[in-house]
């Protein structure tokens, strides 16, 4: 489409310029295409971290936008006349201009389509949400293909996308060179077809305005920085447990990739133990405790040195506990892995995929503990087993607690190893971008039932 600037010059036999709609679509697509090229360079060359992930998400959004605008431009072109070639233009120039014109439609539609194929056949099922707000589906039929066929389509998408990107560079060079030739050497009205009122020559202000716009789009592509992911949903109200001191030591234990299972497990454990004997009477026998609203399970990790904070919004705890009856206390915590949130919908969706939590096969993580140790006044450790992705590993959680009558508050922090549970498959099994150790924490309030 961008090629139309030099492929459809003015003449008395037709319109003197493109229609207003065609001109608007031309400049919108041109700016989006240049910005998209810069984003692609940055995403390919940058470290595979949170910022690069965000760049790819924007890259997808702009790609689909270009596809929609290009289809609209093509439909408009089929129903509206374009300015004819300049009188006396050599035949070879007309053929070349037409070829470049067609080539631009090929890349403007082909690049988004091949990118769409790549996303639709990716091993990690990350949804496309345009500009973080508009859900966009995968190409019908591709996500359901068998592994072999899906990989074949993915390879086709990558190959086609790479070739079209290189073709884009050639077309942009030819197009800009042709515009310069028509405006400076031939001094005809071609540039005026897409810049209404423009006159031939270097002194034309619209020419310099277009050049400044080109430079601005390039600069914007390099300077754009994705906003950091927001904390998952609204942070729960701080409970009295947050004021409790915690031991500096945080025994390491096996844990999930995004550590959700770990935190969830930890929180309730603390709840269980967070019920030391009331002020005026010791709990001789274990009692049932109910976790109260406002309690939360959080996890923190680094993705290519970018800190990410997450939480689980859905988990339950079956607690039977007494500080005076640790040998008979027990705890069972169930965490809904699909409730993991990091403030980025696409990243959260990927956590549910087969490379991470694989929630379709293992929707829950479960922590059970039947052994509790007192390490200091108001400090305990819960020893139990965490079941995540079908893998069971021992987990120890240190926590501090405070009891006031029928209410107990607790807080705990520990470090978990996601790789012990196979959370992070394929390229994500490596710990160079997402470390193996994930910090998990909880703060909760519990009441006697």
Automatic annotation (TrEMBL):
Subcellular location per the Swiss-Prot or TrEMBL entry: Cell membrane
This protein's record includes keyword Electron transport: yes
Report how it sits in the membrane: Multi-pass membrane protein
Q: Which SUPFAM superfamilies match?
A: Transmembrane di-heme cytochromes, YceI-like
SMART domains xref list:
YceI
Query: What is the top-level taxon of the source organism?
Result: Bacteria
One Pfam annotation reads YceI
Report a single Gene Ontology molecular function.
metal ion binding
Record's compositionally biased regions (Low complexity): 251-274
Q: Tell me its cofactors.
A: heme b
Q: Which UniProt keywords apply?
A: Cell membrane, Electron transport, Heme, Iron, Membrane, Metal-binding, Transmembrane, Transmembrane helix, Transport
Instruction: Please name the InterPro entries in this protein's record.
Output: Cyt_b561_bac/Ni-Hgenase (IPR011577), Cytochrome_b561_oxidase (IPR052168), Di-haem_cyt_TM (IPR016174), Lipid/polyisoprenoid-bd_YceI (IPR007372), TTHA0802/YceI-like_sf (IPR036761)
UniProt-annotated stretches for the region Disordered = 251-281
Q: Which coarse location class applies to the principal site listed for this UniProt protein?
A: membrane
Of which family is this protein a member? Belongs to the cytochrome b561 family.
Q: What is this protein called?
A: Cytochrome B
């Amino acid at each position: 489409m961008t090629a139309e600037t030099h492929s459809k010059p003015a003449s008395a036999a037709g319109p003197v310029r493109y229609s207003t709609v065609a001109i608007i679509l031309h400049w919108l697509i041109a700016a989006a295409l240049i910005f998209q090229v810069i984003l692609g360079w940055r995403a390919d060359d940058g470290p595979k971290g949170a910022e690069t992930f965000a760049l790819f998400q924007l890259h997808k959004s702009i790609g689909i936008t270009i596809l929609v605008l290009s289809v609209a431009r093509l439909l408009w072109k089929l129903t509206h006349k374009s300015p004819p070639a300049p009188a006396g233009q050599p035949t070879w120039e007309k053929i070349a201009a037409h070829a470049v014109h067609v080539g631009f439609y090929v890349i403007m539609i082909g690049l988004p389509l091949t990118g769409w194929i790549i996303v639709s056949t990716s091993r990690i099922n990350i949804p496309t949400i345009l500009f973080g707000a508009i859900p966009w589906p995968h190409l019908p039929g591709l996500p359901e293909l068998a592994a072999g066929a899906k990989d074949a389509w993915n390879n086709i998408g990558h190959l086609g996308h790479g070739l079209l990107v290189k073709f884009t560079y050639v077309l942009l060079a030819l197009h800009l060179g042709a515009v310069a030739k028509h405006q400076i050497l031939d001094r005809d009205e071609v540039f005026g077809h897409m810049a209404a009122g423009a006159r031939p020559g270097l002194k034309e202000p619209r020419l310099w305005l277009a050049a400044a716009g080109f430079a601005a789009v390039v600069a914007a592509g390099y300077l754009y920085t994705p906003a950091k992911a927001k904390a998952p949903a609204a942070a729960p109200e701080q409970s009295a447990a947050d004021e409790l001191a915690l031991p500096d030591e945080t025994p390491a234990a096996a844990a999930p990739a995004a550590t959700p299972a770990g935190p969830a497990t930890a929180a309730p454990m603390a709840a269980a133990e967070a019920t030391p004997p009331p002020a005026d009477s010791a709990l001789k026998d274990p009692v049932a405790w109910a976790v109260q609203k406002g309690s939360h399970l959080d996890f923190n990790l680094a993705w290519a040195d970018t800190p990410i904070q997450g939480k689980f919004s859905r988990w339950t705890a079956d607690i039977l506990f007494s500080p005076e009856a640790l040998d008979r206390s027990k705890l069972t915590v169930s965490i809904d892995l699909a409730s993991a949130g990091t403030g980025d919908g696409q990243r959260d969706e990927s956590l549910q995929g087969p490379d991470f939590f694989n929630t379709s096969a293992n929707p829950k993580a479960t922590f059970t503990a039947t052994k509790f140790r007192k390490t200091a006044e108001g400090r305990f450790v819960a020893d139990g087993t965490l079941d995540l992705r079908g893998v069971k590993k021992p987990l120890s959680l240190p926590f501090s607690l405070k009891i006031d009558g029928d209410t107990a508050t607790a807080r705990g922090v520990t470090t978990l190893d996601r790789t012990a549970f196979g959370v992070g498959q394929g390229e994500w099994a490596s710990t160079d971008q997402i470390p193996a150790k994930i910090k998990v924490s909880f703060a909760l309030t519990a009441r006697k039932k």
